[in-house]
Amino acid sequence: MPLLEVRELKTYYFTLRGPVKAVDGVSFDVEKGETVGLAGESGCGKTTTALSIIKLIPPPGKIIGGKIIFEGKDLVTMKDSDIRRIRWKGIAMIFQGAMNALNPVFKVGDQIAEAILAHEKNVSEKEAWERAEKLLEMVGIDPSRAQDYPHEFSGGMRQRAMIAMALACNPKLLIADEPATALDVIVQAQVLEVMRNLKTRLNLSMILITHDLSIIAEMCDRVAIMYAGKIVEYGSARDIFKNPQHPYTKGLIGAFPSIRGPKKSLQSIPGSPPNLLNPPPGCRFHPRCPQAMPICRKEEPKVVKLGGGHIVSCHLVG
């Protein structure tokens, strides 16, 4: 049984102009010990999917359908008081822009210790502080730096401190939303190396959200390509990069530079993502698709299974 099963998840934001269909029928699994990547352009529903899993969707958002099954329990139907017991201890999240989330007037060690004290019983302040120091050491920061304030940390150190905080209560699933954003390439590589080592050391399962395909290729076992609130292609990282089937996946890969192979011009995807207040009929990608057919404008494509867990939603396939 997978650690996490997401089935036909629908999360809408209800505005005065109507419902914004941010996540509209998303399904995927996360097995124990694996990393699943959610990739796509900004606004495609990646972060809303993550916030739905831990039920922290900001108003006016609401889950209106589907299931989120974690260790056999459906989180969608669970009470808020029960969900709070799962957050941090079962599922933890590193939020987008997390390195700026530390409180500037408290020591870093105090902030990590506070997370431990808030979610675990029978833990003294001294024990929480000692665990905070060990967590910092685990992410490559000298334990003595627990006495420092956030402004005394570099951007990469703050990001690693947030990873340490997310791991404070030994979660089984870690959701990382753009964990390397706003970092230079060298520091980005260091942060990703820390996450990779922690995954192996702690046997963590991870959901990695990013628009950077190089990070997906380096970190993920399986990949879900999202467009306009839907998953258009899903499979192993090898299948997605070696044998992409959906025109949107091909466009994303074609728009990303590679240091291998002959030099070639980068491709661009024409147009812009649709307004999810009123998404286009049929395939949501058809207004931008160079291979669109008449049926694409009328009928939503069905999921086609290609074998080996590789699936795609496209009229051109099958």
Summarize the model shown.
The chain is α/β, with parallel strands linked by helices.
Description:
The strands form 2 sheets. The chain has an 8-stranded mixed sheet with strand order 6-7-8-3-9-10-12-11, sandwiched between helices. Strands 2-1-4-5 form a 4-stranded antiparallel sheet. It is globular. The mean pLDDT is 92. It is built from 9 helices and 12 strands. It has 318 residues and is an alpha/beta fold. It has 2 domains: 1-90 and 173-182 and 204-266 and 297-312, P-loop containing nucleotide triphosphate hydrolases (Rossmann fold, 3-Layer(aba) Sandwich); 96-168, no CATH class.
Write the layout of secondary structure elements.
Layout lengths: L3 E12 L2 E13 L4 E5 L6 H8 L7 E10 L2 E2 L5 H7 L4 E4 L13 H12 L5 H14 L16 H12 L6 E5 L7 H18 L2 E6 L2 H7 L2 E6 L2 E7 H6 L4 H8 L48 E5 L2 E4 L5
Parallel strand pairs: 3-8, 3-9, 6-7, 7-8
Antiparallel strand pairs: 1-2, 1-4, 4-5, 9-10, 10-12, 11-12
Helix pairs in contact: 3-4, 3-5, 4-5, 5-6
Structural class by SSE content: alpha/beta
Major pleated sheet: 8 strands, mixed
Roughly how much helix do the residues carry, as a percent range?
25-40%
The CATH homologous superfamily of the largest domain is termed P-loop containing nucleotide triphosphate hydrolases
What is the CATH C-level name of the largest domain?
Answer: Alpha Beta
What is the count of helical runs?
Answer: 9
N- and C-termini, Cα separation: 29 Å
Number of structurally distinct domains: 2
| CATH architectural group of the largest domain | 3-Layer(aba) Sandwich
Radius of gyration: 20 Å
Write the CATH fold name of the largest domain.
Answer: Rossmann fold
Low-confidence sequence ranges: none
Beta content comes to 15-25%
Order of helices and strands: EEEHEEHEHHHEHEHEEHHEE
Please give the number of β-strands.
Answer: 12
Kindly report the average pLDDT value. 92
Spatial shape:
globular
